[in-house]
Amino acid sequence: MPPPMPSRPTPVPHAPPAPRASTPADVRGHLGEVVVTGGAGFLGSHLVEQLLREGHWVHVLDDLSSGSFENLAVVRDHPRLRLTIGSAADPAIAQRVCNSASAVFHLAGMVGVQRLAAEPLVVMQGNLRCTEVMLEAAAAARLPILIASSSEVYGQGPVPFRECDPVRPGSTQNLRGGYACAKAMGEWLALAHNHQQGLPVTIARLFNVVGPRQNGAYGMVLPRFLQQARTGQPITVFGDGSQTRCFGGVREIARALAQLLATPAARGQCVNVGSDREITVLQLAEIVRAALGSRSPIVLVPHDRVFPKSFVDPHRRVPSLDRLRELIGWVPEQRIESIVEELAAAEPSPSVQRALAARAFS
Question: Hey, what domains does the chain have and what are their CATH numbers?
Answer without folding.
Answer: 28-208+249-273 (3.40.50.720), 221-245+277-313+335-361 (3.90.25.10)
